[in-house]
Specification:
InterPro entries: DHC, Dynein_heavy_D6_P-loop, P-loop_NTPase. Pfam families: Dynein_heavy. This protein has 5 helices and 3 strands. By secondary structure, it is mostly helical. The protein has one domain (about 1-110): P-loop containing nucleotide triphosphate hydrolases (Rossmann fold, 3-Layer(aba) Sandwich), CATH 3.40.50. Helix 2 (about 20-35) runs parallel beside helix 3. The longest helix is centred in the last third of the chain and has 17 residues, at about 95-110.
């Protein structure tokens, strides 16, 4: 769904499975912040180490390109690290129709920021 959304926006997107090495994920994120591309990290809840380092990685680039977006697929849980909660716009998705509507609303919100 995120990949389809990126395509409609003519945005390059890199999808990282959670099995992707953390040090490589950091490089991909830094490059995406410079280029203004999108990154989707799937099932990040399965990697506490990567979740905990996201805030540091995002702060490492002082002026990311305005088109940069980081998408995280995460299963809701009580112990999500503060950096994940602090640096994100939370979206809850359910059915395909709800997902599409939610993404459209998120895009409008991001355009206002």
């Amino acid at each position: 769904l995120i990949e389809d959304f990126a395509e409609t926006k003519n945005q390059k997107i890199t999808v990282l499975p959670i099995t992707f090495p953390e040090y490589k994920a950091k490089d991909v994120l830094i490059q995406a912040m410079s280029e203004g591309s999108w990154v989707l990290i799937e099932n990040i809840h399965n990697s506490d180490k990567l979740m905990m380092s996201l805030g540091e990685i995002l702060k490492s680039k002082k002026n990311p390109d305005k088109n940069f977006r980081l998408w995280l697929s995460v299963q809701a849980r009580e112990d999500l690290p503060p950096p994940v909660l602090h640096y994100t716009v939370k979206t809850i998705v359910d059915t395909p129709l709800v997902k599409k509507t939610t993404l459209m609303e998120h895009d409008k919100l991001c355009a206002q920021i």
